């Protein structure tokens, strides 16, 4: 006879606990926020880190396949670089071909939580990624592909992995599949997880316990909190207190469904050798006009990683990106202007993106609202910080993330819609609604790095 019984469908107290942690900004149980830079510098000094460009011929265990030209690892694991052909009926450009990263395995991005003195803290890692401009950034407790945590690289085990893979090791507070960069990954997903433990956890020297508010303070600094941490923090169920919005949840979801269903898109994987307009040299694969990005190769030394030395390909973007939410108050309540953005690698045509998401130098015809964001006066810019994108696959990929207040009309072009932060947080609890750039900006709200309403924190 079963002893199990019904219980509440959600933890009503969790959002309040997260809010208390977000309010704890100056100090946590483990360190003061002001001590973090010295701690991170100490972790950088404790190990040797070096990344240098190499010609493709010096890649170890990587090669271009005869015939297809696809770049792959000899094990068939990790990832490959292939081609993709895209045709769309709408948009400034109707068709194009490009290289794309194919990594079908699902990785784990997991943050471990524990209460100290009644306040939730999060176990964060000082992790080296070869593509980060400053190499060492704050990452989740676990940030690992399946190839890594199953030991394909024959390196050391991933620390704290069991909390996210073993049933009963902790209480799961959030667990959702989310996309990565749709412009550069083909249908890539990761599990974004938040797990709470009641047991004692001794942090390795490369790990530290921080409150959500401390993470928020660090999100106000350039290139400190990595992309993987940001996307997990975006899934934290910060429900807020507001139950009103310009559009009901059902209306917002219906609008998005119409946008997703209304795009006539043909996306096909093709051999990398058939990507026209790109030239392969000894050290890079790039477009003839030197726009967008290039494929390069690097050799890496990292004393704190599971494997100390390796070589790998990376995508190197050309130009800094910008990802900005325009917001305005509607009946006193902040609303964000989201767009349904198509990217070649998305699982289902479009995901919700910031109002502006582009690399300005790549555009001859400026996208909507870009000039408004770039020309905004300082008193209208609520947040303006540069963050690195995925440092494990992209070299020096940075975007300028912004919240900009603007009293623009409520009537907006097709493909755009007003939504509250609380509505976006609700959607972030479901897979493949918000793209990675939108989730970065949402993480800044979740952690209290920015408030769109001076009188209230989070989503009131």
TrEMBL record:
One Pfam family hit: Hexose_dehydrat
Protein name: NDP-hexose 2,3-dehydratase family protein
Ranges for domain dTDP-4-dehydro-6-deoxy-alpha-D-glucopyranose 2,3-dehydratase: 34-235, 250-445
Signal peptide (residue range): none
Domain of life the protein comes from: Bacteria
InterPro entries reported in the protein's UniProt record: EvaA-like, EvaA-like_sf
């Amino acid at each position: 006879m079963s002893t199990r019984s019904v219980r509440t469908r959600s933890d009503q107290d969790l959002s309040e606990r997260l809010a208390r942690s977000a309010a704890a900004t100056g100090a946590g149980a483990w360190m003061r926020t002001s001590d973090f830079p010295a701690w991170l510098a100490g972790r950088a000094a404790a190990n040797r880190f070096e990344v240098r460009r190499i010609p493709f011929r010096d890649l170890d265990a990587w090669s271009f396949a005869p015939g297809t030209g696809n770049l792959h690892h000899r094990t068939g694991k990790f990832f490959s670089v292939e081609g993709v052909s895209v045709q769309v009926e709408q948009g400034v450009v109707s068709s194009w071909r490009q290289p794309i990263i194919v990594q079908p395995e699902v990785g784990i991005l997991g943050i471990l939580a524990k209460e100290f003195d009644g306040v939730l803290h999060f176990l964060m890692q000082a992790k080296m990624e070869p593509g980060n401009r400053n190499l060492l950034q704050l990452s989740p407790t676990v940030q690992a592909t399946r190839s890594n945590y199953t030991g394909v690289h024959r390196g050391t085990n991933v620390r704290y992995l069991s909390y996210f893979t073993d049933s009963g090791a902790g209480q799961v507070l959030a667990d959702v599949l989310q996309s990565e960069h749709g412009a550069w990954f083909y249908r890539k997903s990761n599990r974004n997880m938040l797990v709470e433990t009641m047991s004692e956890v001794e942090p390795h020297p490369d790990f530290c316990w921080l409150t959500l508010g401390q993470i928020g303070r660090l999100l106000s600094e350039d290139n400190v909190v990595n992309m993987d941490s940001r996307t997990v923090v975006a899934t934290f169920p910060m429900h807020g207190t507001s139950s009103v919005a310009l559009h009901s949840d059902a209306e917002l979801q219906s609008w998005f469904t119409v946008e997703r269903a209304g795009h006539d898109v043909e996306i096909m994987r093709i051999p990398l050798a058939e990507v026209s307009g790109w030239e392969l040299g000894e050290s890079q694969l790039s477009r003839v006009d030197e726009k967008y990005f290039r494929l390069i190769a690097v050799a890496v030394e990292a004393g704190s990683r599971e494997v100390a030395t390796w070589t790998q390909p990376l995508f190197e973007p050309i130009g800094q990106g910008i990802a900005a939410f325009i917001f305005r108050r509607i009946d006193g309540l902040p609303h964000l202007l989201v767009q349904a953005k198509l990217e070649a690698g998305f699982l289902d045509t479009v995901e919700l993106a910031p109002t502006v998401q582009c690399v300005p130098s790549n555009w001859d015809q400026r996208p909507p609202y870009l000039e408004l964001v770039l020309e905004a006066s300082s008193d209208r810019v609520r947040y303006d910080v540069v963050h690195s994108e995925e440092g494990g696959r992209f070299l020096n990929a940075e975007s300028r993330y912004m919240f900009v207040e603007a009293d623009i009309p409520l009537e907006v072009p097709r493909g755009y819609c007003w939504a509250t932060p609380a509505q976006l947080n609700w959607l972030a609890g479901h897979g493949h609604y918000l793209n990675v750039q939108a989730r970065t900006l949402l993480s800044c709200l979740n952690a209290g790095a920015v408030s769109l309403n001076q009188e209230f924190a989070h989503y009131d």
